[in-house]
Write a structure and sequence with these properties.
Elements (H helix, E strand, L loop, with lengths): L18 E7 L2 E6 L19 E6 L2 E7 H8 L10 E6 L5 E5 L4 E5 L5 E6 L10 E6 L5 E5 L9 E6 L6 E8 L2 E6 L5 E5 L4 E6 L2 E6 L6 E3 L6 E5 L8 E3 L2 E3 L3 E5 L3
Antiparallel strand pairs: 1-2, 2-3, 3-4, 5-6, 6-7, 7-8, 9-10, 10-11, 11-12, 13-14, 14-15, 15-16, 17-18, 18-21, 19-20
Length: 259
């Protein structure tokens, strides 16, 4: 467990954010922190110097592994505007780290030695920027990236398929609404968490099956029994939300028994 990492929230405790995403490999954990502009008045001394960074966590401490926001500030790969929000991270089997910069509309690759560089830039489509939010390694060895571009009433969000060695976009699946989580089972079934649509979708052999989950975000599949876990009520009032006439707390984790 690591304590003392920076976080921010509204005065009443709402809209809190801290470490946006984590990834683990061979007992080591990586996390990414969002970035705050200097004009926001955020301190620059530790621990606030971790904002916009990839962190390597171990033995109760977190150290900076790479500066993700620096890539956006130097290269601005998407060219629309200079913005950075490292939101998801995935450590590949070869030790490289892939970070999705949601505000930058791109992926950043980090070498084993901590060198960060632009990797993949996602194009605008359907009148909106891509906003990549989630990462998963498919059973085919390819990288899959979910994006926020889409609404429940206008499901235009895509799951991009990316070559993990070159960053080249190989294709995509569309028709999703505001993707905030992505995972695969060992047998190749893909699970897509759609925040505003309020569903987790299983994609298997071209067929899509939905299970209702209120404001789902991160999703994971247990490799031992294939059960699907998803964070529910990722958007909720500080004191909870009324569901079917009863108050229910926010920040829940649900287990989906079956699709």
């Amino acid at each position: 467990m690591v304590q003392g990492l920076p976080s921010g929230a509204a005065p009443d405790g709402g809209f809190a954010t801290g470490v946006d995403g984590v990834s683990a490999l061979h007992g080591e954990v990586w996390g990414v922190e969002t970035y705050a502009l200097p004009e926001a008045g955020v301190p620059t001394k530790p621990p606030w110097n971790t904002l916009g960074k990839l962190l390597r966590v171990g033995h109760g401490t977190a150290r900076i592994a790479a500066d993700i926001t620096a890539v956006e500030l130097k290269y601005n790969p998407h060219k629309a505007s200079v913005e950075s929000n490292p939101y998801a991270v995935l450590v590949l089997p070869d030790g490289r780290g892939i970070v999705a910069d949601a505000a930058g509309n791109d992926l950043v690759v980090v070498s084993q030695h901590g060198k960060a560089r632009p990797f993949t830039v996602f194009p605008d489509h359907d009148g909106n920027q891509s906003v990549p939010t989630s990462l998963a390694l498919g059973p085919d060895g390819k990288l899959y990236v979910g994006e926020l571009n889409g609404e429940a009433a206008r499901p235009t969000a895509r799951v991009w398929r990316v070559e993990p060695w070159t960053g080249k976009i190989l294709g995509w699946k569309s028709g999703f609404g505001s993707i905030t989580g992505l995972a695969f089972s060992d047998d190749g079934e893909m699970y897509v968490s759609q925040l505003l649509a309020g569903v987790v979708t299983k994609v298997s052999h071209g067929k899509r099956t939905n299970v209702k989950v209120p404001f789902p975000a991160g999703v994971a599949v247990d490799p031992y029994d294939g059960k699907v876990y998803v964070s529910a009520w990722s958007i909720a009032d500080r004191d909870g939300t009324v569901l079917e006439g009863r108050m229910t707390p926010g920040g829940q984790v649900w287990k989906i028994i079956g699709f």
